[in-house]
Amino acid sequence: MTIRDAYDVAVVGAGPAGLAAATLAARAGLATVLFDEQPAAGGQIYRAAGITPLRAGSVLGDDYWRGRGLIEAFAASGAQHVPGATVWSLSREREIGVTHGGAARIVRATRVILATGAIERPFPIPGWTMPGVMTVGAAQILLKTAGLKPDGKVWIERKGGSWSPEEEASFKRPTIEMFERQSHPLYASARLWDDGIIDPRRSREALALSLSATLNAPIPPTRFGLFRM
Ligand SMILES: Cc1cc2nc3c(=O)[nH]c(=O)nc-3n(C[C@H](O)[C@H](O)[C@H](O)COP(=O)(O)OP(=O)(O)OC[C@H]3O[C@@H](n4cnc5c(N)ncnc54)[C@H](O)[C@@H]3O)c2cc1C
Question: Fewest CB atoms within 10 Å of the CB: 10, 44, 72, 174?
């Protein structure tokens, strides 16, 4: 992809706002470039709408698929799309610092439209770094770009509103119970997550129990004399 040194219009952000602006500018005959750091157009709300592997259309609702129309109109407009491009500076002279394909460069534009949209602002809660804990935005990105959703039971915690102490306790109870049950050493050992912990004073007992358990199964003929584990 050849990025020119100068354009009539440079748009930053390929969400609905940036796509619409770039389409309009290109249709008006202006040399237009659209920089976006994502690999595909769509921004947050229409993320990956043109390339998502999701087949069940109803999962994200009709609104999501309207994004495809915007992306197609943009693709047909003649504007240049530069995905995977991060804009890191903009001077008063409308010189745009952009990194693309591992190289940084300066591009000039007569007009610059910033359509960099929204970002999610996660707030820390106890346990937010634990495996399996993610923000709703991350869950959406997973769904839209890879067609994946978290496995098993999903709890959603949100900020705002109010609830009584009883409601809070009832909301947290299943998580606390699950945590207590699953953090027991035997739970992890039983699932081969570790090598097990045996009190040294009871190691002979555990060995005898293991040998006794093996005797419950028929012993197949072997050709080795001694087997060491
Ligand atoms: C995590 C998340 C989930 C959301 N979910 C919903 C929802 O379910 N329903 C709903 O109605 N609204 C949702 N919103 C709000 C909705 O996404 C926005 O209102 C809408 O996407 C804004 O469109 P936009 O074109 O202004 O910007 P965006 O869609 O945010 O697009 C901006 C684009 O600019 C790019 N960009 C930003 N900075 C740079 C830079 N420096 N260089 C290059 N590219 C850059 C971004 O990667 C992005 O692709 C969500 C927002 C977020 C953050």
Answer: 174
Q: Is the CB of 136 under 6 A from ligand 1?
A: no
Whether 11 is in the pocket of ligand 1, judged by its Cβ within 6 Å, is: no
Instruction: Say if ligand 1 is within 6 A of residue 99 CB.
Output: no
Question: In tens digits, what is the pLDDT along the chain, a chain of 229 residues?
Answer: 899 999 999 999 999 999 999 999 999 999 999 999 999 999 999 998 888 888 777 888 888 889 999 999 999 999 999 999 999 999 999 999 999 999 999 999 999 999 999 888 877 777 888 877 888 888 888 888 888 887 777 777 666 667 788 887 887 888 788 878 888 877 877 776 666 678 889 989 989 998 999 899 888 887 777 666 5
Rg (CA), the chain: 28
Ligand 1 atom with minimal separation from the 17 CA:
25
Single-letter residue type at 100: H
DSSP-derived pairing of the beta strands 103-114 and 95-100 = antiparallel
Ligand 1 nearest atom to the CA of residue 18, by list position? 25
Our answer on whether the CB atom of 120 is closer than 6 Å to any ligand 1 atom is: yes
β-pairing, 103-114 with 6-12? parallel
pTM: 0.72
Classified as helix, coil or strand, 105 is strand
